[in-house]
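Quick one:
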Amino acid sequence: MKTIHLANVACGLHASYFSFMNYTVEMAKETEFLVGAHPSLLDRQGFGRREMTISPIKPHGAVYGQCARSAPLANAAASVAEVFLTPNNPNVKSVGLAGTEHETAAMEGAPFIPGICTFFHYSSPR
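Output:
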């Protein structure tokens, strides 16, 4: 690992496990190489190689919060939903926090579903 500058780590439902992902990130901290996420569909048996129908597209974790506040990030997330919205997959929807950049970005693309993340602290509008 000391000869690389970037590692894309299989994460989520691809084929990796938390212990492997964590080990790779810890090694990255020690050797100062960059870490990228390599997410996939729910296909551990097929190692993420089989095509599957996608319905809701929702940024995860901190990216969800960042997209709520950042128009460029929200637009990027909404454009992902648009890519998967095809005649063969017409039920794709973009999930995000209502009244934020999520909703604004989704206005021109895939239908929007307002959602919340219960582990975030939400403040009332001012």
